[in-house]
TrEMBL record:
Keywords: Cytoplasm, Transferase. This is Sulfotransferase. The keyword Disulfide bond does not apply. The gene is LOC115473086. The keyword Transferase applies. Residues 32-279 form the Sulfotransferase domain. It is found in: Cytoplasm. Gene3D superfamilies: P-loop containing nucleotide triphosphate hydrolases.
Length: 287
C-alpha cells in the first residue's frame, strides 16, 4: 500500500505523518538537544553516523548498539513507529534528534531553547536523483511514476517535505540567528576530515587526529553500506522495501548525470536560476 501526500501548513507530508501534525508541532525540545535538519536524501544518515561517532569519541562499538534511527530519533515518526515519544522523552540530555521539516515548521521549542542545529544540504540535481530512486522503495510516499513526471514534481515542490529550494534557502537565510552549522554533502565528500573537524568544534569537543581518521573510515560509504546499524537494513519493510534496491545506493556527487537528459538539465537550470536568484547560497554539482 502506497501513502499519499497531504498538505500541512502548505507543505506536502506523507499521510502517515500528517495526522500527527499537532504532536509533532508541539514536540518539546530541551536545552542541550542537538537537531540534525536536512531535506530528504541529502546525506542525513551519513551526518547522523558522524555525529554519533563524535559523541562516542570514535568508539564504533558504542555506535553499534542500536540502529541509527533509534540512536538519533526522527521527530516526524515518533507517533508512527519506535522509538515513540515517551522513549524519546526519557532519553538523557543531550539528545540528538533528526528532522526533515522545513525551517518554518521546526517545532519552536528548538529555537526557544537555543538548541544547536546542524543543517546538511545537497545539490538539487543529486537530491532529486536520490529521491526518485528512494521513492521506489519508500512506501510512505506515492509511486514516483516516470523520471520526467517525478522531476516536474520535484521542481514544483510536490514531493514529501515539499520544495527543496525553499528548504535549503529557509535554513540558509536564518542560520545566523541561531546556533546553526550549515554543511554541504559535496564538501564532506571532498574532504571529510575537515568537515568532521567543523562538527567536532561546533559540538564543543576536541578529538585527536587518529580518532578523526577513524571516523572518516567508519563513516565512508563502503563501511556504512555493510554496517547493519547504519544502513537501514533493519528498518520495517512495510515502510522501506529494499528487496529491489538498497537504502545505501551510490553515495556519489554527480550521479544526476546518469538520469537527467540534456533537455531536462536545460529546463531544470532555467527554473533553478529563477528560484535561486535571490540567494547567496551556492552548490557544487560535481567535484
Ligand atoms: P544516493 O541515493 O545518491 O546514493 P538520507 O540519509 O538523507 O536519506 O540520504 C541518503 C543518501 O545519502 C543516499 O544517496 C545515500 O547513498 C547517501 N549516503 C549515505 N551514507 C553515505 C556515506 N557514508 N557517504 C556518502 N553518501 C552516503
Amino acid at each position: 500500500m502506497r501513502s499519499q501526500l497531504i498538505l500541512v501548513e502548505g507543505v506536502p507530508l506523507s499521510d502517515i505523518i500528517a495526522p500527527h501534525w499537532q504532536e509533532i508541532h508541539n514536540f518539546q525540545a530541551r536545552p542541550g538537544d542537538v537537531l540534525i535538519a536536512t531535506y530528504p536524501k541529502s546525506g542525513t544518515t551519513w551526518l547522523q553516523e558522524m555525529v554519533e561517532m563524535i559523541r562516542h569519541n570514535g568508539d564504533l562499538e558504542k555506535c553499534q548498539q542500536a540502529p541509527i534511527y533509534e540512536r538519533i530519533p526522527f521527530i516526524e515518526l515518533l507517533q508512527c513507529m519506535p522509538p515513540d515519544a515517551e522513549t524519546v522523552n526519557a532519553l538523557p540530555s543531550p539528545r540528538y534528534l533528526k528532522t526533515h521539516l522545513p525551517y518554518q515548521l521546526v517545532p519552536s521549542s528548538f529555537w526557544d531553547h537555543n538548541c544547536k542545529v546542524i543543517y546538511l544540504a545537497r545539490n538539487a540535481r543529486d537530491a532529486a536523483t536520490s529521491y526518485y530512486h528512494f521513492d521506489h522503495i519508500a512506501k510512505l510516499h506515492p509511486e514516483p511514476g516516470s523520471w520526467d513526471q517525478y522531476l516536474q514534481r520535484f521542481m514544483s515542490g510536490n514531493v514529501g517535505w515539499g520544495s527543496w529550494y525553499d528548504h535549503v534557502k529557509g535554513f540558509w537565510e536564518e542560520k545566523d540567528k541561531h546556533d546553526m552549522l550549515y554543511l554541504f554533502y559535496e564538501d564532506i565528500k571532498q574532504d571529510p576530515a575537515s568537515e568532521i573537524r567543523k562538527i567536532i568544534r561546533f559540538l564543543g569537543k576536541d578529538l585527536p587526529d587518529a580518532t578523526i581518521e577513524k571516523i572518516v573510515h567508519c563513516t565512508s560509504f563502503s563501511q556504512m553500506k555493510k554496517n547493519a546499524m547504519a544502513n537501514y537494513s533493519t528498518f520495517p519493510k512495510e515502510i522501506l522495501d529494499q528487496s529491489q534496491q538498497t537504502f545505501m545506493r551510490k553515495g556519489q556527487v554527480g550521479d544526476w548525470k546518469n538520469l537527467f537528459t540534456v533537455r531536462q538539465n536545460e529546463l531544470f537550470e532555467e527554473d533553478y536560476r529563477k528560484k535561486m536568484n535571490q540567494t547567496t547560497l551556492k552548490f557544487k554539482v560535481s567535484i
